[in-house]
Design brief:
single chain; alpha/beta; Rossmann fold; 8-stranded mixed β-sheet; 11 helices; binds guanosine-5'-triphosphate; binds magnesium ion
């Protein structure tokens, strides 16, 4: 990710001009860290001794991160329903398949629910992942009520004694109140049968600072338990991960690093912070 490589060399060299500092600052702002965090990290860097700069900056970044668990909730009371939510095109459907695959590889019994009933292609997309992974997909008729699909899927998953039900929802702009209300209804319908274990907000790393707005608006509307940051393979803008945790206090649970089903990694803060310096 190399986000702080330049900053770190500047501290190590000890002879950085104001013009250089200005350039470093503007590069960091372009990386979507946000002005406030950029100024915080530059202040720490300027105050550090060269031999101690990496430790001091890392400690500062660590203090921005969520202290909540990054594990996926265990299916401790029977079926664990997990919803993936987020704006259009961020990678929800693909990530449902990735998580289903990961859980299945860990010997859990998994079912998928296609609650994006707006587009016929959305159901087909999830169904084709289900076929490839040999995982059952529950879906409804086109344009049917997503809440009724989810109700049926939850019953089916309980009857089949599944450990996890991964629910793919339609992309919805955080600014569209009607769509957010509908999401609330979908969640309540699951909740009637089984406690929802995770509501994971999927955010595209390439969307920039708007990702923070999405996070904060979704958190107000529903009980988001964590984030998945996708498309980190195609961008140098990983700083959004830091900014989102700092703004929300909630943990990133996974990162998406490609379009294949295995391109999902747990978010490892230590490894991530280390990668910012090299
Ligand atoms: N490079 C890259 N592409 C990804 C990643 N995750 C998803 N994609 C791609 O992003 C595009 C959109 O993915 P979808 O899973 O359909 O996104 P969605 O959020 O379900 O979209 P809607 O249902 O339309 O809201 C697809 O081409 C995916 O292959 C990722 O981590 N890296
Ligand atoms: Mg989708």
């Amino acid at each position: 990710m190399s986000l702080f490589k330049r900053l770190f060399s500047a501290v190590k060299s000890g002879t950085t001009s104001q013009a250089d500092w200005d350039e470093i600052r503007s590069n960091l702002i372009d990386s979507d860290l946000g002005v406030k965090l950029v100024d915080e990290v530059i202040a720490i860097a300027k105050d550090s001794k060269p031999y101690d700069a990496q430790r001091a900056i890392s400690a500062q970044i660590s203090s921005w991160l969520s202290t909540k668990s990054r594990e996926i909730a265990a299916p401790s009371d029977g079926l664990a329903p997990i919803l993936l939510v987020g704006v259009n095109g961020v990678g929800k459907t693909t990530t449902c398949a990735k998580i289903a695959n990961l859980l299945q590889k860990n010997d859990y019994k998994v079912m998928l629910a296609a609650a994006d009933t707006f587009r016929a292609a959305a159901v087909d997309q999830l169904q084709s992942w289900g076929d490839r992974l040999n995982i059952e997909v529950v879906s409804g008729k086109p344009n049917s009520d997503p809440a009724s699909v989810v109700f049926e899927a939850t019953s089916a998953a309980i009857t089949a004694k599944c450990d996890y039900l991964i629910i793919d929802t339609a992309g919805r702009l955080h600014t569209k109140q009607g769509l957010m209300d509908e999401l609330g209804k979908v969640i309540r319908v699951v909740q009637k049968q089984q406690p929802v274990k995770e509501i994971l907000l999927v955010i595209d790393a390439t969307t920039g600072q708007n990702g923070i707005k999405q996070a904060l608006t979704y958190i107000e509307a529903v009980d988001v338990t964590g984030f998945i940051i996708t498309k980190l393979d195609g961008t140098a803008k990983g700083a959004i991960a830091l900014a989102i945790e700092r703004a929300s206090g909630l943990p990133i649970k996974f990162i998406g690093v490609g379009e294949q089903v295995t391109d999902l990694q747990p978010f490892d803060p230590e490894k991530f912070i280390k990668s910012l310096f090299t």
